[in-house]
C-alpha cells in the first residue's frame, strides 16, 4: 500500500517567476548545497506499462477483479490494474454488443432528445445481482433530455430498456415537478451517478448546467426513483452555471460524502476542471473548504449565459489545465507532462487497501480534442479533503520506512491550479526547499517539521496555509520515481510539486548546452525564435558575428540580391550562478531573390517526373511527384499533367521577401470535387494562401489566411473545365485582383495581409495542405511567380500565350 505523509503547507499564491539565489545549488561545498535523497522509497518490480483508451465521461464500476468504465456514445472499456485498458464497445450503433439494436432499444429517449447519440452512462449492480445502466440522451443545444434505465445479467450486456424515468427541456409545458419547465431552475436530466450510502440506501445524483445538480432517492428493487419527488432535491448550481458531471463518493476514512463536480466546458478551450465539496449526509448540505454552502452557488442571472465569474470562487478545485514543463536541459523528451480540460470524473475506494482513486478523461497540451482515460490516486489531507497525486497511478508499492526530512529538501517543479475557469495552461515554476527550512524561487517562505514529527511539514508565505500529502510517484517522462506533494489551501486551491534531481550549476548549464537545438541553420529566411531560458532558471543570451543580417535577438535582414549569402556565427551564452558555457552555430542568411520573376516553370524538362525546372535566375527548382509530361498543340508543347490522386509539385519558399505578388499560369481543369488547389503556399495551417478552381459554392476563389482570418477574392463562378484558361492573382498594397483569361473577375481593397508575413515553408502546385482536400486533376503550363503585381496589360499579354 502506498505510504504517505500528511503535510501542512502555507504559501503565498505567487505567480511571477523569480531567479533562484546562486547559492541554492552552488558548485562549492557549503551548508546551502542541496543534496536530496534520490534513492527510491518503493519496491518496483518492473517498469510500469500503460495501454490507453478513449472513453469520454468515464464512470467506474468494479466487477470481480475487473474495472469497467462506461461513458458517452456508449463507449465501454475495462482494466484489471487501472493502467492497461481494453476497449469493449463504442458508438450508438446497432452493432454495439453492450446494447444491441440500441436505436430501437433506446429509441424513445433518442426521439425525445432529438439526437442520435447518448451521453454519460452510469452502471451499478443492485441486490438482485443484475446490472442497471442509467443512460441519457440530450439534444445538446438545449436541455431537452431523457434519462432512463436498462438492465442486464452481465456487466457487458446485453442491456434491455426499462423505460425513461426523467425528462427535461419541455418548454412551456408541465415538468416532472408539476410546474412549467424553467431551465434556470429545473435540471437538465443527464450525467447520472447512482450510489449506495453507508447505510445501504440507494440514491441518484445528476444534472448539468441549466438549473443545477439534483439528488433523488431511489427504489432498491426497481432501480427507479421513489414516487412523488419531482426532480428531487437541489444541491448546487443554477441559472445555467457551467457545473455538471456530479459523482458521489463516501470515504470510510473521513466519514464524509464527497460530491465531485466539473466546472467549465469540456472541450480543449473550455477550461474544464475538477472540484469537490463534502457533507456528512448524501443529500447535503454540501460545503467547500472555505465553509461556503454550495446551495448558494449559481450564475448571476443578470449576466450573459454561462457566467463563470459567479462560480469560480466556490468548490475545492482539485485540478485544471497544467503542464509540468520540460525546459531545455531537463531530462526526457517532449514538452513535459500535463492535462487540458480534465474532468467528468468518477471515483473508487478499494475496500481492502483503503486506497482512493480518481478516474476521469482528459485532453492534452498540443493534441487538440484527443482525449483519454486517466487514473490518479487520492489521499486525504489533515483536514479530511482529498488531494490528487500529480502523476497517473502506476501501481507502485512503497516501503514502510518514513521519508526523512533530507529527502524533502530539494528543487521542485511547482504548479498552482488557482480557482479560475480558463483555457490557459498553468505551467510549472521552479522552487527550492533548502535543508535549513527556507523556500526560494517562484514561492518564497519557510518550511519546517513540527516538533520533530516527520509526518507534519509547514510551509509559510503570506499567511496562506496548504495541507497535503507527500508520495513517491512514477514520472512517465523521466521513467523513474520522484517525490511529489499535493496540497490544498483553506480556500480550495491545489498546489502540486514534483522533485527534480540535485544538480550543480555547472551540470545544469552543461545539460542546457547539450539539449539546445535551434533547428536547421543552413538557410534562414525569417526571424529566429531564440530561447532565452533553460532548466533550473538558467539564462541563455545570444551574440551574432554580423548583427546587420542577424541581430542578437534573432531578427533577420537578408542581403540584397547579388550581394551573396551572409555567413554568420551565432553564439549562445548559457549561465546559471557563476557557471557558464557557450555553444556556437554557423548560420547562413541567403541573399534576397532576384526579381521580378521569382520562379518560372515551363514544364518542358525531360525529368519532369522528378524535377520541375525553374527557368528564372533564382534556380528555385521544384520536386515533382507523379506528374507526367503531356504533349499539346501542333507544336507539341510539353505541359504538366496532374492525375487528381497523388500528383503535385513542391516548390522552395518562393515568396519569403514578397510584399506585392503575382501568380500567373495556364490551367486546364478536368473538374471534380471542390477545394482542389491550383497552388497552396504557406506555413502549416495557420498562415497560407491558395487558389482553388471551385470552392463549396462552386466559385473560383483565392484566399490569404493569417491571424485566424481569411481575406478572399471570389469569382461569380467556377473555373471553366476541359479547356485552357489563363488565371492570375495580383496583390499590390491592400488591393487584390483575380483574373481569368486576362479579365478581372474579382477584386478587393481589403487584402491587408502580405505574402511575406506567411513565412512560407511549403509551396505546392496541385496539392492542398489540408489532407481532406482533393488533389488537382488536369494540366498546367507557363506557371510564374513574381515579387511585384503585374499590371492589367501585362496580365493580358500573358493570357495571349495559350499552350495550344
TrEMBL record:
Keywords: Disulfide bond, Glycosidase, Hydrolase, Signal. Its EC number is 3.2.1.99. It is an enzyme of class 3 (hydrolase). It comes from the Bacteria. This is Arabinan endo-1,5-alpha-L-arabinosidase. InterPro entries: aBig_2, Abn2_C, ConA-like_dom_sf, GH43_arabinanases, Glyco_hydro_43, Glyco_hydro_beta-prop_sf, LamG-like. Belongs to the glycosyl hydrolase 43 family. It comes from Paenibacillus tundrae.
Amino acid at each position: 500500500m502506498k505510504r504517505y505523509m500528511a503535510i501542512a503547507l502555507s504559501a503565498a499564491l505567487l505567480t511571477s517567476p523569480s531567479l533562484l539565489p546562486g547559492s541554492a545549488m552552488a558548485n562549492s561545498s557549503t551548508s546551502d548545497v542541496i543534496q536530496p535523497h534520490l534513492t527510491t522509497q518503493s519496491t518496483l518490480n518492473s517498469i510500469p506499462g500503460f495501454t490507453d483508451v478513449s472513453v469520454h465521461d468515464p464512470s467506474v464500476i468494479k466487477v470481480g477483479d475487473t474495472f469497467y468504465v462506461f461513458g458517452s456514445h456508449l463507449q465501454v472499456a475495462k482494466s484489471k490494474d487501472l493502467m492497461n485498458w481494453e476497449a469493449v464497445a463504442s458508438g450508438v450503433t446497432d452493432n454495439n454488443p453492450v446494447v444491441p439494436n440500441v436505436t430501437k432499444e433506446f429509441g424513445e429517449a433518442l426521439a425525445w432528445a432529438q439526437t442520435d447519440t447518448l451521453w454519460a452512462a452510469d452502471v451499478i449492480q443492485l441486490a438482485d445481482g443484475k446490472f442497471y445502466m442509467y443512460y441519457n440522451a440530450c439534444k445538446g443545444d438545449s436541455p431537452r433530455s431523457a434519462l432512463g434505465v436498462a438492465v442486464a445479467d452481465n456487466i457487458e450486456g446485453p442491456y434491455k430498456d426499462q423505460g425513461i424515468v426523467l425528462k427535461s427541456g419541455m418548454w412551456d409545458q408541465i415538468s416532472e415537478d408539476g410546474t412549467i419547465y424553467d431551465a434556470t431552475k429545473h435540471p437538465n436530466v443527464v450525467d447520472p451517478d447512482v450510489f449506495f450510502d453507508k447505510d445501504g440506501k440507494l440514491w441518484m445524483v445528476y444534472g448539468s448546467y441549466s438549473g443545477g445538480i439534483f439528488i433523488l432517492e431511489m427504489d432498491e428493487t426497481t432501480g427507479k426513483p421513489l414516487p412523488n419527488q419531482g426532480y428531487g432535491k437541489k444541491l448546487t448550481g443554477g441559472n445555467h452555471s457551467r457545473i455538471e458531471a456530479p459523482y458521489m463518493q463516501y470515504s470510510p476514512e473521513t466519514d464524509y460524502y464527497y460530491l465531485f463536480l466539473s466546472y467549465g466546458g469540456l472541450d480543449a478551450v473550455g477550461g474544464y476542471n475538477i472540484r469537490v465539496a463534502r457533507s456528512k449526509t448524501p443529500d447535503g448540505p454540501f460545503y467547500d473548504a472555505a465553509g461556503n454552502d454550495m446551495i448558494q452557488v449559481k450564475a448571476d442571472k443578470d449576466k450573459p449565459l454561462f457566467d463563470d465569474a459567479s462560480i469560480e470562487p466556490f468548490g475545492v478545485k482539485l485540478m485544471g489545465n497544467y503542464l509540468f514543463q520540460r525546459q531545455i536541459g531537463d531530462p526526457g523528451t517532449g514538452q513535459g507532462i500535463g492535462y487540458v480540460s480534465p474532468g467528468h470524473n468518477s471515483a473508487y475506494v478499494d475496500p481492502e487497501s483503503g486506497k482512493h482513486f480518481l478516474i476521469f478523461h482528459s485532453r492534452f497540451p498540443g493534441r487538440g480534442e484527443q482525449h483519454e482515460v486517466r487514473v490518479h490516486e487520492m489521499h486525504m489531507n489533515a483536514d479530511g479533503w482529498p488531494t490528487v497525486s500529480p502523476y497517473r497511478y502506476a501501481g507502485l508499492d512503497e516501503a514502510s520506512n518514513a521519508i526523512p526530512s533530507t529527502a524533502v529538501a530539494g528543487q521542485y517543479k511547482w504548479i498552482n491550479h488557482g480557482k479560475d475557469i480558463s483555457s490557459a495552461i498553468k505551467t510549472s515554476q521552479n522552487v527550492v526547499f533548502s535543508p535549513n527550512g527556507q523556500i526560494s524561487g517562484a514561492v518564497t517562505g519557510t518550511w519546517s517539521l513540527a516538533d520533530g514529527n516527520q509526518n507534519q511539514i509547514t510551509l509559510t508565505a503570506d499567511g496562506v496555509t496548504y495541507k497535503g500529502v507527500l508520495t513517491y510517484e512514477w514520472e512517465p517522462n523521466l521513467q523513474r520515481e520522484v517525490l511529489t506533494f499535493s496540497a490544498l489551501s483553506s480556500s480550495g486551491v491545489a498546489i502540486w510539486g514534483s522533485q527534480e534531481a540535485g544538480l550543480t550549476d555547472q551540470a545544469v548549464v552543461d545539460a542546457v548546452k547539450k539539449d539546445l537545438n535551434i533547428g536547421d541553420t543552413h538557410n534562414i529566411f525569417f526571424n529566429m525564435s531564440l530561447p532565452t531560458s533553460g532548466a533550473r532558471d538558467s539564462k541563455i543570451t545570444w551574440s551574432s558575428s554580423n548583427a546587420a543580417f542577424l541581430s542578437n535577438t534573432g531578427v533577420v535582414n537578408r542581403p540584397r540580391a547579388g550581394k551573396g549569402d551572409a555567413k554568420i556565427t551565432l553564439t549562445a551564452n548559457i549561465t546559471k550562478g557563476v557557471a557558464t558555457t557557450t555553444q556556437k552555430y554557423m548560420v547562413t542568411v541567403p541573399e534576397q531573390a532576384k526579381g521580378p520573376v521569382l520562379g518560372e516553370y515551363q514544364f518542358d524538362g525531360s525529368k519532369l517526373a522528378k524535377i520541375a525546372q525553374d527557368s528564372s535566375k533564382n534556380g528555385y527548382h521544384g520536386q515533382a511527384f507523379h506528374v507526367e509530361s503531356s504533349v499539346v498543340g501542333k507544336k507539341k508543347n510539353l505541359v504538366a499533367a496532374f492525375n487528381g490522386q497523388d500528383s503535385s509539385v513542391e516548390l522552395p519558399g518562393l515568396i519569403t521577401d514578397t510584399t506585392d505578388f503575382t501568380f500567373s499560369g495556364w490551367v486546364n481543369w478536368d473538374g471534380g470535387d471542390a477545394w482542389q488547389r491550383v497552388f497552396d503556399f504557406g506555413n502549416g495551417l495557420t498562415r497560407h494562401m491558395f487558389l482553388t478552381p471551385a470552392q463549396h459554392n462552386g466559385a473560383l476563389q483565392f484566399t490569404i489566411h493569417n491571424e485566424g482570418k481569411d481575406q478572399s477574392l471570389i469569382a461569380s463562378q467556377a473555373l471553366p473545365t476541359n479547356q485552357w484558361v489563363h488565371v492570375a492573382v495580383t496583390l499590390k498594397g491592400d488591393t487584390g485582383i483575380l483574373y481569368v483569361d486576362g479579365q478581372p473577375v474579382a477584386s478587393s481593397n481589403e487584402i491587408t495581409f502580405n505574402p511575406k508575413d506567411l513565412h512560407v515553408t511549403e509551396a505546392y502546385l496541385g496539392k492542398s495542405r489540408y489532407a481532406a482536400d482533393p488533389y488537382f486533376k488536369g494540366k498546367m503550363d507557363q506557371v510564374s511567380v513574381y515579387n511585384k503585381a503585374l499590371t492589367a496589360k501585362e496580365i493580358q499579354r500573358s493570357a495571349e500565350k495559350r499552350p495550344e
